[in-house]
Amino acid sequence: TDIGSQKDRVVSEEEWLQKWEMGNIGFHKEQGHPLLQKYLDVLLNGRSGLRIFFPLCGKAVEMKWLADMGHSVVGVEISEQALKDFFAEHSLPYCEEPIPEISGAKKLQSTSGNISLYCCSIYDLSSSILGKFDGVWDRGALVAVNPRDRQRYVSLMMTLMEKNSSYLLVTVSYDPNKHKGPPFYVPESEIKSLFG
Ligand code: SAH
Fold first, then answer.
1. How much distance in Å is there from the Cα of 46 to the middle of ligand 1?
2. Could you give the domains of the chain?
């Protein structure tokens, strides 16, 4: 398949913020993702009290699901509106604090302490700020990353993973000649070469 038409395409942070502002967020799923339900056992692998990472989290309701199951959830999202909507829509009180290592960035944390959402670009973060994770839910994340940034994104994700962690990745299969993305088309062969 010819994916050349997508490889140079860039969706800027400004464009993402605009989507949130305009309510142009067709990617958000009110009901949560059936594939997380289906593969929950693979993510958890019999373990409890995990630290689970949601890259490019939006206001994904699955964060609430996993927190309610007793896990600790960390998300990253550039849109502050998305994060505030998340807490408001689940009636969760939260507090805000600056992230000293990143100028202008802040962390929104549920008062109960089990959901921490970083408002900044994922590329500003590192394991020294976030720590490491037992599980990752990557839906609308790798496929939203600009194709030229994929290697950087995956390398960062690798540094955030604990030894026995599980990584659930959702991609979208479609004809990249007919749609410019996002979500971008990430062929299976590329996933293999990115993650090794
Ligand atoms: N995973 C979510 C949202 C998918 S849409 C879900 O399943 O609903 C992709 C999200 O990534 C958007 O909300 C966008 O604002 C955010 N985003 C885009 N670039 C980002 C970056 N560099 N760092 C953090 N968030 C980013």
1. 29
2. 12-195 (3.40.50.150)
